[in-house]
Amino acid sequence: MARFTGLLIAALAASAAPAAADDIEKFYQGKRIQVIVGSGAGGGYDTYARQVARHLGRLIPGSPIFVVQNMPGAGGVVAANYVSNVAPKDGTVIAATQREVPLIQLMGQQGARFKANELQWLASLSSEPGVCAVSTRTGVATFEDMLKKPLNIGGTGPNITEFHPAMLNNLMGAKFKLVKGYTTTQQVHLAIERGETDAICQSWASYKPQAEAMAQQNLIKPIVQMSLRPEPEMTKLGLPMIFDEIKDSTVSNGFTAEQVKGYFTLLIATGFAGRPFFVAPEVPKDRVAALRNSFAKMVVDPEFVAEAEKQKRDIDYVSGEELQQIMVDLVKTPAEMLGKLEGLMQYK
Predict the structure, then answer these.
(1) Which of 63, 104, 130, 276 has its CB 3.0 to 4.6 Å from that of 226, i.e. a possible disulfide?
(2) Per residue in 205-220, pLDDT tens?
(3) Domain shared by 286 and 224, yes or no
(4) Is residue 10 in some structural domain?
(5) Same structural domain for residues 265 and 153?
(6) Per-residue confidence (pLDDT) for residue 16, from 0 to 100
(7) How large is the C-alpha radius of gyration of the chain?
C-alpha cells in the first residue's frame, strides 16, 4: 500500500506539472506585461528594465508583450505603492524599483504602503557595489580630501545618491551639500559636467557608462568603493573600500569605528539586491514561479548576454528566492538600530 501510494503521488505530480505549464501559457498568451520603473527614463534602473522588456517575454510561456512605464517619485516608493495597491495583481505588472525601497519601508518612513517581506521578489540582475566620485576640477584626489572639502552633490531621491553622502556627513564629518531635483543619475552627470554639482554617489554599474566620456577626459574621478566586498575593477583602479577608511580617528565624535561600520553595513547590504524586480503579494504562486524561472533562463540567454556585453552592463544574477530571504532577514533588524539609521541618512 505504501509503495502504491508513493507511485500514485509521483504520477499525480508528473501529470500536474504539464497542466500547470499549460495554465501559465494559456494565461499569458496575448497578454501585455507592464514593467513599472521607479525612476525616470535614461537612468540605470530604466536601462536594466528596458533590456528585460526586450527579452523576457519570449521566455515566458505564452510569449506576452512587454511595455515599460516610468513612475518616478520618492526613491521608488511611488512605483512600489502603485504595484502593491493599485495595479492588477494577476502577474501582468512587475515593479523595477530602487534597491533602497525595502529599507525605506522597514524604517517606517511615511508614504510606504507595502511590506517588503510580503512582496514577491522575482530576481535582481546585479549585486551592486556603489561608488562615490568627484569632479577633478575640485582638486579632490583621495578619500581624505573628499571628507575635508565642501562639495555639492547631486541627488535623485531617497536612495544611495542621497543616503551615502548623508551618512558620510553624519558619521565621518564630510561636508556634502545636497542638490536635489534630479530624476536620474544621468542628469547628475550632466550637472557635474556643467559645473552645477561636484560629486555623485551611485552604483558602479551605472557609473561606468555614464561617466565614460568625462573619465576619458580626466574630468571625474572615482574615490571610494561603497561595497561589502572588493569590486575587481575598482580595486584595480586603486579605490579603497569604505570599511578600510572607517577608523576611530576618522569617525565623528560620539561614534566608534565599529558602530559606523555597522550602520554602513546595514545600508550597503541592500546593494545585494542591486536591480530588483517584484510583483504584488496577491499574485498567484504558480505565476510567480513561472516569472522567476523565466528570469533565470534570461540571464544565460545568448541574446540577452550579448546585448548586456555590448552595452557594458554588468549582470550578476540574484534569484527571487534569495531576495525573498534577504527581506525576511531585514525584518529582524532591531528597531532601535533602524530608528538611528533613519536619522543618519538625513541631511542636517
Answers:
(1) 130
(2) 889 999 999 999 999 9
(3) no
(4) no
(5) yes
(6) 46
(7) 22
Contact 290, 24 (CB under 8 A): yes
Rounded to 5°, the CA angle 96-40-98 comes to: 35
Name the residue with higher pLDDT: 1 or 337. Answer: 337
Please state the pTM of the whole predicted model.
0.70
Same domain, yes or no: 173 and 241: yes
Residue range(s) defining the domain that contains residue 88: 19-126+273-335
Asked if residues 184 and 41 have their Cβ atoms less than 8 Å apart, the reply is: yes
- CATH number for the domain including 69? 3.40.190.150
The reply to whether 29 falls in a domain is: yes
Predicted local confidence at residue 19, as pLDDT: 53
Could you give the CA distance from residue 165 to residue 105 in angstroms, rounded to a whole number? 20
Q: For the stretch 55-92, what's the b/e string if a residue is b when 16 or more beta carbons lie within 10 angstroms of its beta carbon?
A: bbbebbbeebebebebbbbbbbbbbbbbbbeebebebb
- Beta strand 120-124 with 151-154 is unpaired
Tens-place pLDDT, residues 228-256: 888 899 999 999 999 999 999 999 989 99
Q: Tell me: pLDDT of 6 over 60.
A: no
In whole angstroms, give the CA distance from residue 324 to residue 101.
Answer: 14
* Residues 272-308: tens digit of each pLDDT: 788 999 999 999 999 999 999 999 999 999 999 999 9
| Distance between first and last Cα of the chain | 72
